[in-house]
Write a structure and sequence with these properties.
The complex is a heterodimer of chains A (148) and B (619).
Chain A (H helix, E strand, L loop, with lengths): L1 H5 L2 H9 L1 H7 L10 H14 L5 H17 L2 H14 L4 H7 L4 H18 L15 H11 L2
Chain B lengths: L4 H12 L3 H12 L16 E2 L13 E7 L11 E3 L2 E5 L6 E5 L4 E6 L21 E3 L2 E5 L4 E6 L5 E6 L14 E3 L2 E4 L11 E6 L5 E6 L15 E3 L1 H4 L1 E3 L26 E3 L4 E5 L20 E6 L5 E6 L14 E8 L2 E9 L4 E6 L5 E6 L7 E5 L4 E4 L5 H4 L5 E4 L13 E3 L4 E7 L1 E7 L13 E7 L1 H4 L7 E7 L4 E8 L8 E3 L3 E5 L4 E6 L5 E6 L9 E5 L2 E8 L9 H7 L13 H5 L4 E6 L2 H14 L1
Parallel strand pairs in B: 1-34, 15-20
Antiparallel strand pairs in B: 2-40, 3-4, 4-5, 5-6, 7-8, 8-9, 9-10, 11-12, 12-13, 13-14, 15-16, 17-18, 18-19, 19-20, 21-22, 22-23, 23-24, 25-26, 27-30, 28-29, 29-32, 30-31, 32-33, 34-35, 35-36, 36-37, 38-39, 39-40
The chains are: A mainly alpha (148), B mainly beta (619).
């Protein structure tokens, strides 16, 4: 915990997320310290993203969270996700987080990294469902979220 | 002729004291500590509960017992009310209300107003709503489009509705109303749109306007008596009448008509003094150069008679605001000792970074000190004159339009925003969620167009450590404050600003939420962390507590308003099935449609029964 605090806030996630930096930080980083709750949440969300609840998606998602937990300390994982959610808030409030040094880079690196690990674990995005009035919005939204 | 004494009294009352019965319904509801019947837990806004089943010794065993998903994505501020066996949960726009049966957590009724979605565009700061009020068998909801509604608490049916403002002029609402006797009091938002702020009271029986008092303008429209409305002018001048045209004199020409001073914060009430307390927001526009003068009564603490609206006293904290430090934060009313004498105190943590300790009866300021040492826009409040001593280096007015003033602390959101603090009479301490953020500020010229943003400043914000030069990167603190001395007792750094309302309890536990989504419980005396639980999203709601069937519960809404979750937002946009479902984990589809979530915590029965048995054994 303390070790993480020494490194500056978002810059730390940036460095720790980069695979090229991984080896030099390996000994400093508390590995695999994710609470069960965080893993379960990730897996549920991940299964939903990759086509729903079945053993294929579950195995892939379990693999991916193990990969992520190996490389990113839990605190950094939480911080990056928190910042990502705040930046999506409209209005004055999120303004105070928009200019955080290294913030956007950390989020983008985090997303690239998780996408890579998910791909490494064999997860593939389901083909978009043909557009019908009932599911148009969902399809659009999932296509949008697939953009970097 | 003989009348039974009781009915005689009621006849007298019907004639002379209409409203007394209504007052009792709020006072009764608040008086029972099993309820959480008003935003602040009591009229004084203390956010303190005498419940003590959950203690510093056992809070580590707390666990979530049930959850409720609102199905609304935007930021969830405020907290639910609990009256008897029913909980009332509100949501951001579209401002749904759910009544939940606490016996089985089923939805008894749901209310969803039809509002023009265009109102979203004129809300400056997300489409939040800070909650409901309860009185006399009615639930009061102040909708975003300014419609104030009274709902039958039993079945959710609309009893009456009234328009409190006009969104076309930029008027919107986010505040929780408050009921005092036979009136429901509310305010207005839209300071960024040049709205002229006011407080208004409507009869709870029929929604008829009882009084409306503006923050700026002619005396009569502000419900101010030039000879009787008092203001503190510092230790030298003492309390003085505001005098004629106290607002008009401090604006250039007609600027007061679009002068801001909106009233979107929290309202407190002292039944003995019959005074309602609230604060007014920033003057419009944000560009201070074009509005010379003190801009009264923006940035002001107001004490008004609850029956008539007449101002008893006013105090402007930030004359001629240059930084957007709205004065709307909660007013904590407390019994305290000053110079060895019992006194009715008012404690207020302003956005401007100063904590004020005042005499609630007279309006005299006793103390005003920084509750975040990094605050630099003013060196101090000069007690002799009653005015802040502004550091010219950080004056966006002196530096002028199109000049970027750098390193101002706090940032525009203030050292603390609306998220209300808590006060424990047991420890005598205030527990304050804060921002630890500074800014660069560049004003520019704007023309006023009704219904358009009237801001005129470019801001850039960063952690306060950059100005302080201590390399710290945290952007929030949770502090314990001694208002008799004006000193921080302890301070817990938080990585992100603390935007959730706090709760203090007789179990010597203080609760608050974080933007990571943690509900945290800390020791009321030492600040030591005793428990944390990660809820599904960032917390900007207030922590509430209540008792049901001999069990103490803790509840909080999470939902920061932005969603990092990959599939969640996508699912919500396309589908409304399962919204408002109790139990976010009921099915995968419910899970992916989170939106805001209320999480309710309690101790396992093993713990509560074990402790109850121990008590019996000891006796």
């Amino acid at each position: 915990m303390q070790r993480v605090n020494k490194i500056s806030f978002f810059l730390s996630s940036l460095l720790l997320l980069g695979l090229s930096h991984y080896s030099s930080y390996a000994e400093d980083v508390p590995l695999n310290n994710y609470p069960t709750q965080a893993r379960v949440e990730y897996v549920f969300e991940c299964m939903s993203k990759y086509g729903g609840e079945n053993y294929t998606t579950m195995y892939g998602c379990v693999c991916a969270i193990d990969e992520i937990a190996k490389r990113i300390p839990y605190d950094n994982y939480v911080r990056t996700q928190t910042l990502d959610s705040i930046l999506k808030v409209p209005g004055e409030r999120s303004a105070q987080y928009r200019d955080i040094k290294g913030g956007r880079e950390a989020i983008s690196e985090f997303k690239t990294f998780t996408a890579e690990r998910e791909s490494y674990c064999g997860l593939k995005k389901p083909a978009p469902v043909a557009a019908t009035p009932a599911n148009t919005q969902t399809t659009k939204a999932s296509q949008a979220s697939a953009q970097p | 002729m003989k009348f039974p004494v009781k009915s005689m009294l009621s006849v007298v009352c019907a004639l002379a004291c209409s409203g007394a019965a209504f007052a009792d319904s709020v006072m009764d509801a608040i008086g029972n500590n099993a309820n959480w019947a008003i935003w602040g837990g009591n009229y004084a806004g203390n956010r303190y509960s005498t419940l003590n089943q959950i203690t510093a010794a056992n809070v580590s065993k707390l666990r979530p017992e049930w959850t409720f998903s609102t199905g609304v994505l935007r930021g969830h501020e405020g907290g639910p009310l609990v009256i008897g066996e029913t909980m009332y949960v509100h949501t951001p726009f579209p401002n749904k209300v759910f009544a939940i049966n606490l016996n089985d957590q089923t939805v008894i009724w749901q209310y969803e107003p039809k509002q023009d979605a265009n109102v979203i565009g004129v809300m400056c700061c997300d489409t939040v709503n800070r909650g409901l009020a309860y009185a006399d068998g009615k639930i009061f909801l102040q909708q975003a489009d300014t419609t104030l509604v009274a709902l039958n608490a039993q079945d959710g049916k609309l009893v009456w509705s009234v328009k409190n403002g006009d969104p076309k002029k930029g008027e919107t609402n986010t505040n929780a109303p408050i009921v005092v006797k036979d009136k429901v009091i509310t305010g207005i938002s839209g300071g960024e749109f040049g709205v002229r702020g006011f407080a208004a009271a409507y009869n709870i029986s029929d929604g008829k306007l009882a009084w409306k008092c503006y923050s700026t303008g002619p005396d009569a429209e502000m419900c101010m008596d030039p000879a009787k409305t008092m203001t503190w002018t510092g230790t030298k001048g003492g309390m003085q009448p505001v005098g004629p045209d106290s607002s008009l004199k401090t604006w250039q020409g007609d600027q007061w008509k679009i002068g801001g001073g909106t009233t979107w914060g929290w309202y407190s009430y002292d039944p003995e003094l019959n005074l309602v307390y609230y604060g007014t927001g920033n003057p419009s526009t944000w560009n201070p150069v074009v509005r010379p003068g003190d801009n009264k009564w923006s940035m002001t603490i107001m004490a008004r008679d609850a029956d008539t609206g007449m101002a008893k006293w006013v105090y402007q904290m930030t004359p001629h605001d240059e930084w957007d430090y709205d004065g709307v934060n909660e007013m904590q009313l407390v019994k305290m000792k000053a110079n060895g004498k019992e006194m009715k105190g008012l404690v207020h943590f302003d956005r401007n970074g100063f904590g004020y300790t005042m005499n609630a009866e007279t309006g005299e300021v006793l103390l005003a000190t920084k509750y975040d040492p990094v605050v630099n826009w003013a060196s101090h409040i000069d007690m002799e004159t009653g005015r802040p001593v502004v550091d010219p280096k950080y004056s966006t007015d002196k530096n002028g339009a199109d000049f970027n003033t750098q390193g101002i602390c706090p940032a525009a959101l203030g050292s603390k925003d609306q998220q209300p603090s808590a006060y424990s009479p047991k420890t005598g301490l205030f527990y304050v969620p804060t921002n630890h953020v500074c800014m660069d500020y560049e004003p520019y010229q704007v023309e006023y167009v009704a219904g358009q943003p009237y801001v005129g400043a470019t801001l850039s914000m960063f952690p306060a450590g950059k100005v302080k030069g201590d390399n710290s990167t945290h952007m929030g603190n949770f502090i314990a404050w001694d208002a008799t001395k004006g000193e921080i007792k302890w301070s817990l750094p938080e990585q992100f600003s603390v935007w959730s309302g706090a709760l203090a309890t007789a179990g010597d536990v203080v609760f608050y939420g974080t933007l990571e989504g943690y509900l945290k419980a800390v020791d009321a005396n030492t600040g030591k962390e005793l428990y944390r639980f990660k809820t599904p999203s960032g917390i900007i709601g207030n922590i509430n507590t209540w008792k049901f069937k001999d069990k103490q519960y803790i509840g909080v809404l999470s939902g920061v308003g932005g969603w990092a979750g990959i599939g969640m937002a996508a699912g919500l946009a396309g589908d409304t099935d399962g919204l408002g479902a109790v139990g976010a984990y009921r099915s995968l589809s419910a899970y992916t449609q989170l939106g805001g979530v209320l999480t309710v915590f309690s101790l396992p029965s093993e713990v509560t029964q074990g402790e109850a048995n121990q008590k019996v054994a000891q006796q």
